[in-house]
Amino acid sequence: MNHLIAPSILAADFGNLQRDIEMLNQSEADWIHVDIMDGLFVPNISFGFPVLKSVAKIAEKPLDVHLMIVDPDRYIKQFAEGGAHGITVHYEACTHLHRTVQGIKEAGCKAGVALNPHTPVNLLSEIIADLDMVLIMSVNPGFGGQKFIHNTYRKIAQLKELAAKENPDLLIEIDGGVDQFNVNNLISVGANVLVAGNTVFSAADPLHMIRTLKNPL
């Protein structure tokens, strides 16, 4: 499959959020990535249900909701009702991960699991067949603009190998430090969904940057 681009609105101009969402609607982006942070699982707070619902009213692309929160089971139904197309929870935040994944699917959303940089890929071996996507964090979660962690390439290759037999259609998403300089390398080792925040929204021409990430040389 061709890779997907999911700009993260965490890096958007919150004073002009509708303008930025409408720009993404007109772009070659495939999804809109929405980072939900609670200040507990990660040392930052982003936004919650009212903002998600407002974004959903404007967005013409599927909303890729990434929950960086503790005890995400409490809110899965609300995020689904708020407009999420896919919901990704963190392996590190879920005591009963299989139950959480099933809850996401029962809510009508695609189910993803995210791994922090220190979390080994092989911990997903017992659940990988049930997942639609795995998100590999290529920075420590919580803030945008961080430096890409090079070990990510090895983890992508390991994940692709793990999924080959049980779930060959698994989407592999990368979040953190994605830019026009590493996009080809990420795709070549197996990534097929790329989240980009500052790379898109700090660009002089965000539409051109999205086009570059979608169609790298």
UniProtKB/TrEMBL annotation:
Pathway as given in its UniProt record: Carbohydrate degradation
GO terms of biological process kind: pentose catabolic process; pentose-phosphate shunt
The entry's keywords: Carbohydrate metabolism, Cobalt, Isomerase, Manganese, Metal-binding, Zinc
Cofactor binding note from Swiss-Prot or TrEMBL: Binds 1 divalent metal cation per subunit.
Positions annotated to bind a divalent metal cation: H33, D35, H66, D175
Keyword check for Chaperone: no
Pfam family, one: Ribul_P_3_epim
Residues reported to bind substrate: S8, H66, G142, F143, G144, G145, D175, G176, G177
Biological function: Catalyzes the reversible epimerization of D-ribulose 5-phosphate to D-xylulose 5-phosphate.
Name of the protein in question: Ribulose-phosphate 3-epimerase
Source organism: Mucilaginibacter straminoryzae
